[in-house]
Amino acid sequence: MNRVFWLAPLMAWLFTVLPAAAGESATQETVDQGTLAPDGETAPAERMKTVIEERVTVVGSYSELASLPGSAHVLTEVELQKQAYSDIHRILRQVPGINIQEEDGHGLRPNIGIRGTGVERSQKVTLLEDGVLIAPAPYAAPAAYYMPSAGRMEGVEVRKGSAAIRQGPYTNGGAVNLSSRAIPGERGGTLDVYAGDHGTAKLDATFGGSYERFGYLLETFQHRTDGFKELDGGGSTGFELSDYLLKLRFNTRGTNGPYRELEVKLGRTDQDGDETYLGLTASDFDRTPYRRYAGSREDRISTEHEQVQLRYFVYLGDRLDWTTTVYRNDYFRNWHKNESVLGVSNAAVLADPLAYATELAYLRGDLDSEGGALKLRNNRRDYYSQGIQSVLAFEAEAGSATHHLELGVRVHEDEEDRFQEDDFYDIVGGSMVLERRGAPGSQANRVGRAEALAFFLEDRIELGRFSVTPGLRFESIDLERLDYGTTDPGRTGDALRTRSNEVDVWIPGLGLAFELRDDWYLFAGVHRGFSPPGPSSTEEVEPEESVSYELGTRYRRARTTAELVGFFNDYSNLLGADTLSTGGTGSGDLYNGGKVEVYGLEAAFGTELYRSDEVAVPVRTTYTYTRGEFRSSFETSFEDWAPEVERGDELPYIPEHQLFVEAGVEGDRWNVFLNANLVSEMRTRAGRGGIPEDERIEGHMVFDLSGSYTVASRYKVLLQIRNLTDEVYVASRRPYGLRPGLPRTALVGLSFAF
């Protein structure tokens, strides 16, 4: 049954076919001229870069975005540098069709959905870094408690329905790919340093270069803050994040055979945060929205992430190339956080403070307790994911048609290992005092595993101004859960219980594009959506399946771009996942949601209102209208839908309207950009009609300001102000009470290139 094993013979062969590399240095002129192709003619370096981009990204080369047979968006390095966001939520709010639930104010643990998929820990979105699955255990436990540091990325891509063929296994909504910084073409480096409110500091430093047959990049991204919340009795509510990246490239000249390239990527990220799930009662939020109760003082999260990627690329000319990536990700987290008080869930206490006055007094630290009234859980989990994926691309002529074919395969396995226990604390004099520790593994002691084989075939057929892109994806998934029981920490197997599930699914799709003229396209698509179920749960769980339709038009000319898309996702079954972050028990069990329809409209527009030799005035705006409804009635214990759903009820955590506007003024040595994000009200539980007060997140608008001034050719002074007007708003009501968004935070910085 083991589909993945480390292919030592294959990797040994890959290395033997490459030269020792790091040979004689090349001048920058040689690098710019390009690499020799098999026929001895010069193949431009930009062509080589473009081909690799097409294989490891979800959109392909940026130059071909206009003709793509489906909705897709790319935020380039230029766009990302305008505000220099390190929060993935703020970055993705610029893209239409994205649904987001904020959490910690910094985007460290994202909640992202696409076209109504649900946002819970981004479980229904295919998340990638450089084309590789990046969630801790994408199949066995897809909740994204890890997200690559957005502050070190040079590009972000989002592809919706038409991503279903090349990217999986989550194809109902689409894929998000984060592109890490590429190895530079010439030797040099950059240094960006920020400092500001709440003890916040950021640093991004890079150094690298290229030679004739060797290139390298070193990067570190550091981010820390004391936090914007005020802990009762004082103390930090922030985090420290350290991210390190190394890339090495070895390549041949290509003069005596195919061009070959091997890129080695090594990364490590550590994070320690004084973060909690515990929010506030409605009345406390109204008075002191940034307060944190004394009962959360011992809440903290510690994580470690390591990644290894080896990407091997062979260029056999304009009609044939092959890309293979071997990858491994290891992730550890322990989130020690308050779960309940006197056996009552924190959610119940904060939702009804009058009924649970004593419990609330303990959480606030107003009343001394005894006997270990506060239960804190060590949510200790180890993850790994590993595999090998390969794409063979070739071009063929058939009469008047040109075929651009891609054949891809991925062999993958991943695992989540839970070994958790509960500790018990008392409140004494407003402080938390340990009463007793739980026995290791006494709360959860289990392993979830997945093995998957996937392949796809996609053919973009060009017929003059018309193109049709049929495709087919196949996923074969084996899921298994081994529950050793809470009384067997040594995992002898005496009380072992197992669950398993096997799924084989074919995922077809079809995309169409028509070039009305050189700068104006029409496109349409129909694709099957799929999300795998977990091991057998408390009920008979079916896979999540849908059929998605989209119809749109795209315009790109000079400095003006526009896109308008209508979409309709028809679910035959929607799944809900029980997680602590949604206010559930954290079991990870899945629940059937039955038939659901999600439909909406997405619009994007960008242009320059004015340009002269001295100044330019660029503007960008995106708008999303989304509506999702259940089309069946049922009873459920899933927290976001419970206790029952009626036909016509709206999906939770999906705002009907979202608007992003960016306006800027740019001169030769300076620029200023103002962003506005408007999110309409949304419900936190399935329902219809007027939203009850305790189930509503009110609409809000947040402004961000940034600017830079070039002092000398290599120096820039930078300014960032998040939440310029200091808007106080509820980011979330789950899992336990109301939690605020980031207040006004100003940072000043210096950028240096050398």
Topology:
Layout: H1 8-16, H2 28-33, E1 35-36, E2 42-43, H3 45-56, E3 72-75, H4 77-83, H5 88-92, E4 98-100, E5 112-114, E6 126-129, E7 132-133, E8 153-159, E9 175-180, E10 188-196, E11 200-210, E12 214-225, E13 230-231, E14 239-251, E15 259-273, H6 282-287, E16 291-292, E17 300-315, E18 320-341, E19 344-345, H7 346-351, H8 357-364, E20 374-398, E21 401-428, E22 431-436, E23 444-463, E24 466-483, E25 497-517, E26 520-531, E27 544-557, E28 560-573, E29 575-577, E30 590-592, E31 596-611, E32 615-630, E33 634-635, E34 644-645, E35 657-667, E36 670-679, E37 682-683, E38 696-697, E39 700-712, E40 715-722, E41 730-732, E42 739-740, E43 745-753
Parallel strand pairs: 6-9, 13-16
Antiparallel strand pairs: 1-2, 3-8, 4-5, 6-7, 8-9, 10-11, 10-43, 11-12, 12-14, 14-15, 15-17, 17-18, 18-19, 18-20, 20-21, 21-22, 21-23, 23-24, 24-25, 25-26, 26-27, 27-28, 28-31, 29-30, 31-32, 32-35, 33-34, 35-36, 36-39, 37-38, 39-40, 40-43, 41-42
* Distance N to C terminus: 52 Å
The CATH architecture can be given as Beta Barrel
Structural class: mainly beta
| Total number of beta strands | 43
The biggest beta sheet reads:
22 strands, antiparallel, barrel
Using the alpha-carbon principal axes, give the shape. Answer: globular
**Rg over C-alpha atoms, rounded to the nearest angstrom:** 26 Å
Summarize the structure.
By secondary structure, this protein is mainly β. It contains eight helices and 43 strands.
